[in-house]
Write a structure and sequence with these properties.
By secondary structure, the chain is mainly alpha-helical. Helix content is 69%, strand content 4%. It is globular, with a radius of gyration of 24 Å.
């Protein structure tokens, strides 16, 4: 049964390689959606099967190839972490498949997107279930191939020399990391490699931090992943995410590389669970990501850039949670933030397509009466992302904030960084978008504005289902991730150990969670001040003559000086 998880996306990809003359287009799209939907249902089946296993460590293996006389023993590894990521990826693939049918009119583009979407899902499933280095290597390059094909759909086909060298260096890091995994354990089997980590005793010291050889190899693998991701941040290159359409953008960001990055970090934790310095480096990296992308968020008005920076900062939060060994909180937070970012990306895609692919929010405005349902979906997405009670993000944020306050005083700085910087900025940016795009002065092209209308009922129904999940799934899944039983389950699944379990005492320092809300509401109030109140004061002739006020209007508000 489990092998059908891989067969159906692959079959969908192969079906799209046939000519549309051989298979009617409507039937092909319907069959594609059915195959992806069945894959999603099968992912739920695998998850509950693992959850009900009567084993100390909830996992099992599915044999692919086994020839003892040839020393070939290949199989797929299924555990609760892998099955959770499979659920998210197949669900995102299903939502994007349905969304593409009603939102894209170009037949050629729609055909390619659905084809490459199926290949992308298949590639990621093979990566996260692989249990030997060769499977991992081949699947990694299938993901690279699928992202390359997605990039070809965009009009921007400019090659960047720096991008080329970075990707080749990423390939080198990947090859070296897999090679040294083999050399240190003398096996390509990941289970054998995991069992060999106590044997590897050689350590290296860098800036008073001690790392084993396996730690360095894992850093190299993760660095290879980060280098590969960097290509999406380079403007005017072939892989510039800003040139992707909303479906390709959402798939690459939320359905491929965000889950892959989380998987790489969590999958290899078994090798370095005894290294506190390794976790300290993750804490430092997560804090750095949050700081950098929080600053970038304040300087952009481009919708795709805003989502890209928010997603990058969310990944920084995940790294901090891993560094604090909050394994249940990591998976829960990834689930809720991925759904919130997905509905934001698709809703912004609807608005942008109505305005001739405009991404600058300063060239929008007063769309609440033109797109009331899209306004509601965006509000739900941001509300969950901010962790407002009682959306899904509220429950995952609880785990992030309550548990670290019980670990040690040295962790407080990292939590305060997230609490006082990122929380303020994300709440400010969220309501800046809502105010400028939906409630602010209309700066749209008047001809495009008059033609704006809500998309088809089918598309709105898809976003409605997604919003219902965002509202209620956190409450439903909370028991799976919270409490001692939830922490034990995910600690066993990720590192095979429960020694890092945290004793709950939520009343001890609940002020940290409450302080976060103060900064959240302060960010919302500051957005109202900058984008609703101060622009109105800008019409005051006396204030206009004050240079400091003019500077403030120019750089911190959306005031139109041409008025």
């Amino acid at each position: 049964m489990e092998i059908l998880l891989f067969i159906f996306p692959l079959l969908s990809f192969l079906l799209f390689q046939f000519s549309s003359k051989k298979i009617k287009t409507e039937f092909l799209y319907a069959l594609h959606i059915i195959l992806i939907a069945i894959s999603f249902i099968l992912s739920l089946y695998v998850f509950f099967k693992i959850l009900n296993l009567d084993k100390d460590v909830p996992q099992y293996f599915y044999t692919l190839l086994k020839f003892d006389h040839l020393f070939i023993d290949w199989y797929l590894r299924f555990d609760i972490l892998v099955s959770s990521i499979i659920i998210i990826v197949t669900f995102i693939g299903l939502i994007l498949s349905i969304y593409s049918i009603t939102s894209i009119d170009d037949f050629s583009k729609k055909f390619k997107i659905n084809s490459y979407l199926s290949l992308s899902i298949f590639s990621l499933l093979v990566v996260i279930t692989s249990n030997n280095l060769i499977q991992f290597f081949l699947a990694w390059y299938l993901i690279i191939l699928s992202s390359y094909l997605m990039a070809k759909i965009s009009k921007n086909q400019i090659d960047n020399r720096n991008n080329f060298f970075q990707n080749r260096f990423s390939d080198l890091c990947l090859f070296l990391s897999l090679y040294f995994f083999y050399k240190l354990s003398n096996s390509i089997n990941l289970d054998v490699i995991f069992k060999s980590f106590p044997i590897v005793e050689n350590n290296s010291t860098v800036s008073h931090l001690t790392f084993s050889n396996l730690d360095i190899v894992i850093f190299t693998l993760f660095f290879s992943f980060l280098l590969r991701c960097r290509q999406f941040y380079i403007s005017n290159s072939r892989y510039d995410l800003l040139s992707f359409n909303s479906i390709s953008y959402s798939l690459v960001l939320f359905g491929l590389f965000l889950p892959l990055g989380l998987y790489i970090i969590l999958r290899f934790l078994t090798l370095n669970q005894i290294s506190s310095d390794f976790f300290n480096v993750l804490l430092l990296m997560g804090t750095t990501f949050i700081f950098i992308f929080s600053i970038l968020l304040t300087r952009t008005y481009n919708l795709k850039k805003i989502l890209l920076y928010i997603a990058s900062a969310q990944f920084g939060i995940l790294l901090i949670a891993v560094g604090l060994k909050l394994f249940s909180a990591v998976v829960f937070y990834f689930f809720t933030s991925a759904l919130s970012l997905l509905i934001l990306s698709l809703s912004f895609g609807v608005i942008s397509s109505q305005l001739n692919n405009e991404q600058d929010i300063r060239k929008m405005g007063y769309l609440i009466f033109k797109c009331p349902s899209i306004f509601l979906f965006i509000l739900i997405g941001f509300t969950s992302l901010l962790g407002i009670p009682y959306f899904s993000g509220f429950y995952s944020n609880q785990l992030i904030f309550f548990e670290p306050s019980l670990i040690n005083k040295e962790s407080y700085f990292l939590i305060f960084t997230y609490c006082f910087l990122y929380t303020f900025i994300i709440s400010y940016i969220s309501f800046k978008i809502i105010l400028v795009v939906f409630l602010g002065q209309n700066n749209c092209d008047i001809h495009l504005y008059n033609k704006i209308k809500e998309r088809s009922f089918f598309l709105r129904y898809t976003l409605f289902v997604l919003s219902i999940l965002i509202i209620f799934s956190g409450w439903y899944l909370n028991n799976l991730f919270s409490g001692n039983s939830g922490e034990n389950l995910w600690s066993l699944a990720i590192i095979g150990d429960t020694n890092s379990t945290i004793n709950h005492n939520h009343d001890n320092k609940s002020w940290l969670f409450e302080t976060r809300y103060i900064f959240c509401y302060f960010g919302i109030s500051f957005a109202f001040l900058n984008y609703l109140i101060i622009p109105k004061l800008g019409n005051n002739l006396k204030l206009k003559n004050i240079k400091l006020f003019k500077y403030y209007l120019k750089y911190f508000t959306s005031y139109d000086f041409s008025r």
